[in-house]
Amino acid sequence: xxxxxxxxxxxxxxxxxxxxxxxxxxxxxxxxxxxxxxxxxxxxxxxxxxxxxxxxxxxxxxxxxxxxxxxxxxxxxxxxxxxxxxxxxxxxxxxxxxxxxxxxxxxxxxxxxxxxxxxxxxxxxxxxxxxxxxxxxxxxxxxxxxxxxxxxxxxxxxxxxxxxxxxxxxxxxxxxxxxxxxxxxxxxxxxxxxxxxxxxxxxxxxxxxxxxxxxxxxxxxxxxxxxxxxxxxxxxxxxxxxxxxxxxxxxxxxxxxxxxxxxxxxxxxxxxxxxxxxxxxxxxxxxxxxxxxxxxxxxxxxxxxxxxxxxxxxxxxxxxxxxxxxxxxxxxxxxxxxxxxxxxxxxxxxxxxxxxxxxxxxxxxxxxxxxxxxxxxxxxxxxxxxxxxxxxxxxxxxxxxxxxxxxxxxxxxxxxxxxxxxxxxxxxxxxxxxxxxxxxxxxxxx
Length: 446
Hints:
globular
C-alpha cells in the first residue's frame, strides 16, 4: 500500500470515528433543571446532577440557578408560554396550587414515571411529605426535593444559666419556662420565631388538628376558603400578645429575620426550619444548643378531642416536570427523578443540607449509619413529622395565591403585636382579605 493510499484509509477511518462520536453526542438527551438553591446548596445541586450524568450515557441534566422561588416560578410559566420551558423546575410549596392550575403546563409525576417505565412506588415516600404534592388518591403531582418542617431550637448555655433543665412540649408549660428565663436575666427575650405564618399559624393548626381552610386545607378543591379564625387560634395569639408585652416572646420580622435575635443571644429559643441546623451550628459562638419539638397546645387538643399532637407540616419545594416536552426529554426527567430517589442519594442530600429524607429507605439508611446519634437533634424533625398519621388538617395545604395570603396574615399578625388590633379582629380580617384572593384564584383555576 503506497503512502497516498495509506493516508486516504487513515483519513477515512478517522472520519468514521468522528461521525460515530458525533452520533453518540447527538444521541444524548440534554435537559435543563431550573432551581433556587444558592451558595453551598447550589454547589451540591451541581454535584448531584454531575453524578447522575456520569452514572449513565443517555441523558445529561444541566442545573441552572434562576433566582428566588417566586422569580423562578414566574419565569418557568412565562417560558412555557413561549415554548422555551425547562424540563424540570423547583417550585416552593406555596406555589403548588398555581402550578396545578396552569393548564397543560405540567406533566404529573405519576404519569411521567409510568410512561417512562421508571420504577415508582408512591408508598415508599414519607406520606407527611408527599401528601402536600399528591391528589386525594395518592397520585403524586410533583417530586419532593427539599422538604423541611419547623422545630424549636434552644440555647442550652442560656437555659443552664436560667436553671431550666428541660424544654416543655406544650405552649402552656412553655410560658412558665420562658418567664423563668427572662426573670433570671439569662436572656432579654424568651423566644422568637422565623416565618411567622408558616410556623405560628399554619403549623399551629396542623399540630392541634385545627383547620387552616375548608376543603382539607384546599387539597380537595379550589373552592376552599380560610377557616383559621377559631377560638383556639384566637386564644393562641392572645397568649403570644401577652408574652410579647412581658418579654417571653419577641416578634422578629418576616422570613428568617428573627434568627439574628437567637444568634446574638437576645432570645433563648427560636422556632425555625429544621434545615436551619447547619447555620445555627455555624453561628453558635461557643454556646451549645439543642433541638426540641415544635410546641402544641394542650388546651386546643382538648377542644378537638385529641390526646396527642399531630405531625407538623412541611415547607421547602418540589420538582415539577413541565409539559410540552419530547418523549426523550420526559424520559430524561423521569430517570433523573428516579436517581434522586435512591436511598444513598437522599441520605447524602439530607445529611449535607439538613432537609428531610423523602423516602422510608433513606431515613433507615441515615439511622443505620449512626448519623442521628453522632448529631443529636437531627432526628427531631423526622420523628415529629412521621410520629402520627396525617389528617385533613395536617396533610398540608394547597391554596391559590398562598404567597400573597401569607403576606396578609403576617401584616395582621404585626397589627396584633404593635397593639393596633386585637387577635380576634386581626384574624377575622386576615380571613376576609385572604378569601378575596382565594375567590379570585378559583375563577382562574376552572
